[in-house]
Design brief:
It is an enzyme of class 2 (transferase). One of its GO terms (molecular function) is AMP kinase activity. The protein is α/β, with parallel strands linked by helices. It has a single domain (2-26, 79-212), classed as P-loop containing nucleotide triphosphate hydrolases (Rossmann fold, 3-Layer(aba) Sandwich), CATH 3.40.50.300. The protein has helices spanning 13-24, 31-40, 44-54, 61-72, 90-103, 117-125, 165-179, 182-189, 201-212, and strands at 2-6, 28-30, 81-84, 109-114, 127-130, 136-138, 157-158, 192-196. The strands form two sheets. It has a five-stranded parallel sheet with strand order 2-3-1-4-8, with helices on both faces. Strands 6-5-7 form a three-stranded antiparallel sheet. 31% of the residues are buried. The protein binds adenosine-5'-diphosphate and adenosine monophosphate (AMP).
């Protein structure tokens, strides 16, 4: 199963990806997580990407496409994968199509989690992420069982550097200007499914699994 989770920053892609990993036993490929790991490791790519991420801007396509090309070639992607936060531009979507076509595979579904902008700010400012596995929680809407501790791996929960009210605005602008045009691209491909991402986490999961069954 080759899946993509689509939606604005904070729409719930990472949260729902965790359920898909368990259900289908395929890896989540989050370009945001890969970039944050590169920042922690202080690689040249990470240091370059950080400048864009701190300002809520998209990292250049060439960097992102290179990351995905390497990641999809890894053996754990053979049975499928869940793309999360990629593609975010038309150039990335076209590159993905070419890459998948060369690999002899195609996308089964693009699941869009629809959440209006006015809910996004509250979601992002209340988000807490695991410093070890990247799992996403929310202080109010989706709290971890133990405060500041990840339910999945016990890692420490932290606030992402870009999860502040100012950066959210530029991230939402980037989404509407550069990413939303992909709705048309994937609708024409016949794989685009829209879900109401404003429902409770468990209801969104049920709708998503239903759409995939
Ligand atoms: P994305 O990966 O799309 O950026 P996340 O999955 O990290 O988004 O979710 C953003 C924030 O919203 C997190 O704090 C998460 O716990 C919370 N969240 C996710 N899904 C829902 C939901 N259905 N209702 C309320 N809050 C949610
Ligand atoms: P995310 O974890 O998906 O919210 O992404 C965090 C940040 O990483 C974004 O605001 C961008 O700066 C960068 N980023 C992640 N994925 C991409 C992508 N596919 N294209 C460009 N920039 C990306």
């Amino acid at each position: 199963m080759n899946l993509m989770l689509f939606g604005a920053p904070g729409a719930g892609k990472g949260t729902q990806a965790k359920f898909l990993i368990e259900k289908y036993n395929i890896p989540q490929i989050s370009t945001g997580d890969i970039l944050r790991a590169a920042i922690v490791e202080k690689t040249d790519m990470g240091m370059e990407a950080k400048k864009f991420m701190d300002e809520g801007k998209l990292v250049p396509d060439s960097t992102i496409i290179g990351i995905i090309k390497d990641r999809l070639a890894e053996s754990d992607c053979k049975e499928g994968f869940i793309l999360d936060g990629f593609p975010r531009t038309l150039a990335q979507a076209v590159a993905l199509s070419e890459l998948m076509s060369n690999m002899g595979i195609s996308l089964d579904k693009v699941i869009s989690l629809n959440v209006p902008d006015e809910l996004i700010v509250g979601r992002i400012t209340g988000r807490r992420v695991c410093s070890k596995c990247g799992a996403s929680f929310h202080v109010e809407f989706n709290p971890s069982k133990k405060e500041d501790e990840c339910d999945y791996c016990g890692g420490e929960l932290i606030i992402r550097k870009d999860d502040n009210a100012e950066t959210v605005i530029s991230r939402l602008n980037a989404y509407h200007d550069q990413t939303a045009p992909l709705i048309d691209f994937y609708t024409k491909m016949g794989v685009f499914v829209e879900l109401d991402g404003t429902k409770d986490v468990s209801e969104v999961t049920a709708d998503m699994l239903n759409a995939l069954s």
